[in-house]
C-alpha cells in the first residue's frame, strides 16, 4: 500500500538531508526508500526558486486593478477640468 506524504513532511525530510544528515539514516527513520528521497530532493531543488516569485493575481484582483487604473484616469481628468475650467472630455 502506498503512503501519502504531505508537502511539509517532504520538505522537512529533504531539508534535513541537504543540511548534512545521513540520507540512509534519514530514510530508515522515516521508512522511506533512498530513491524516493532523491526524487523529492530533485523536485525541491528544481522548484525552490518559486519561493521568491510574486504570486499571480487572482482574476478578481486583476479586475480590481483594472478598475483602479480607470478610476485614477477619471480622477486625473476631473482634476484637470476643475483646475482649468474647461471640459477635457
TrEMBL record:
One of its GO terms (molecular function) is transposase activity. GO terms for biological process: DNA transposition. It holds the Pfam family HTH_Tnp_1. This is Transposase IS3/IS911 family protein. The lineage of its organism: Bacteria, Pseudomonadati, Thermodesulfobacteriota, Desulfovibrionia, Desulfovibrionales.
Amino acid at each position: 500500500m502506498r503512503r501519502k506524504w504531505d508537502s511539509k513532511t517532504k520538505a522537512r525530510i529533504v531539508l534535513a538531508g541537504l543540511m548534512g544528515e545521513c540520507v540512509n539514516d534519514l530514510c530508515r527513520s522515516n521508512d522511506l526508500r533512498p530513491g524516493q528521497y532523491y526524487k523529492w530532493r530533485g523536485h525541491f531543488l528544481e522548484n525552490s526558486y518559486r519561493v521568491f516569485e510574486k504570486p499571480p493575481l487572482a482574476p478578481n484582483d486583476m479586475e480590481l486593478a483594472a478598475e483602479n487604473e480607470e478610476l485614477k484616469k477619471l480622477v486625473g481628468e476631473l482634476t484637470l477640468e476643475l483646475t482649468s475650467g474647461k471640459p477635457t472630455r
